[in-house]
Design brief:
Layout (H helix, E strand, L loop, with lengths): L5 E7 L2 E8 L11 E6 L12 H12 L2 E6 L15 H17 L5 E6 L1 H15 L6 E5 L16 E5 L7 H8 L7 E3 L10 H11 L9
Parallel strand pairs: 3-4, 3-5, 5-6, 6-7, 7-8
Antiparallel strand pairs: 1-2, 2-4
Helix pairs in contact: 1-5, 2-3
Length: 217
């Protein structure tokens, strides 16, 4: 993502997994305020940790003072294994979290994801909640409602979606979010990949992150 991106490998359940770490500006933050895991879109449709929206989410978290880490899912880049429809990917994200906890054991956790990555992160949050160690907040972009069986997410989750998304229709996200009473931020004119609209993702995540719930603004 930038000159300060640290690339590394971890041992996954079915082989090595390629990861990238970005640190907040040491001149601005005396110490990181949290740890953020970012999940990329569908591996079988060109998704990787270098996806522009995954990078934008990482930048937003770094701006907020978080250590931001991304991972190539199975079969992407240097990561070994084959696509596992979200189950193995969630296991791998949990392994990445365990790896990062060795380096940052006490930092609050944030989860961010785009498209298929929102399915992985919402499942990981469900698993962490059952363990009594949930992430403090999620930022989900292009949430994959209707594509995969997404579990409910916390009320303070930031949901951002494109008005003209034809991969995951906005109505599907409304139908998923409505029973949970979670607001959806709609970017007018944005498609699934937010072409020429990426700045809105970073701006909203950074601006809203320290607001307990969007609806309280």
């Amino acid at each position: 993502m930038n000159a300060h991106t640290e690339h590394f490998m971890i041992n996954g359940a079915v082989g090595q997994l390629e990861c990238a770490l970005d640190l907040p500006d040491a001149g601005q933050f005396t110490a990181p305020r949290g740890l953020a895991l970012v999940a990329h879109p569908h591996p079988l449709f060109g998704g990787s940790m270098d996806n522009k929206i995954a990078q934008t989410l990482a930048r937003a978290f770094v701006t907020l003072g978080y250590v931001a880490v991304r991972m190539n899912f199975r079969g992407v880049g240097k990561s070994e294994g084959v696509h596992d429809h979200g189950a193995g990917e969630t296991d791998d994200m949990a392994l990445l979290l365990a790896h990062m906890r060795q380096r940052y054991p006490e930092l609050p956790l944030a989860l961010g994801g785009f498209s298929f990555g929102t399915f992985v992160q919402s499942q990981l949050q469900q698993r962490l909640t059952a363990q009594g160690k949930p992430a403090e907040r999620l930022a989900l972009i292009g949430t994959a409602a209707g594509k995969w069986p997404l579990p409910d997410v916390p009320a303070n989750t930031i949901l951002i979606h494109g008005e003209l998304d034809d991969t995951i229709p906005l109505q599907a996200v409304f139908d998923w979010a409505r029973p949970q009473d979670i607001p959806v931020i709609v970017i007018p004119g944005a498609d699934h990949f937010f072409h020429r609209k990426l700045q809105h993702i970073k701006n909203y995540v950074v601006t809203l992150w320290d607001t307990p719930e969007i609806s309280s603004m």
